[in-house]
Write a structure and sequence with these properties.
With 110 residues, the protein is mostly beta strands. Helices cover 0% and strands 54% of the residues. The chain contains no helices and 11 strands. The strands form 2 sheets. Strands 2, 4, 5, 6, 9, 10 and 11 form a 7-stranded mixed beta sheet that branches. Strand 4 and strand 5 form a beta hairpin. The chain is globular, with a radius of gyration of 13 Å.
């Protein structure tokens, strides 16, 4: 499995970003996949995950603001992030079955 995350950037508080994770490999569409983030000095944490069938789960801190989705025809998983807060600032990674993408930086200014 290879994962390529993209879509990060600098945004003001209250703004939006959409992250994409393009995957390859024969099992990509058949396994759950998650978006994780790691802020400086903090442990990597799960932000959202989606099952192979499209069922999402969210960390309490992002519920109602973030939406995870997947397009199996494009081998891509998305994370729509709305109402961003400075505390959302982190490097965001997609991860599946022990494999990780390279991370994309999200910075939210106050």
């Amino acid at each position: 499995v290879q994962l390529q995350a993209s879509g990060g950037g600098l945004v003001q508080a209250g703004g939006s970003l959409r992250l994409s994770c393009a995957g390859s490999g024969s099992t990509f569409n058949f396994n759950a996949i998650g978006w994780y983030r790691q802020a400086p000095g903090k442990r990597r944490e799960l932000v959202a995950a989606i099952s192979s069938g499209g069922r999402p789960n969210y960390a309490d801190s992002v519920k109602g603001r973030f939406t995870i989705s997947r397009d199996n025809a494009k081998n891509t998983v998305y994370l729509q992030m709305n109402s961003l807060k400075p505390e959302d600032t982190a490097v965001y990674y997609c991860g599946q079955s022990g494999y990780w993408g390279q991370g994309t930086q999200v910075t939210v200014s106050s």
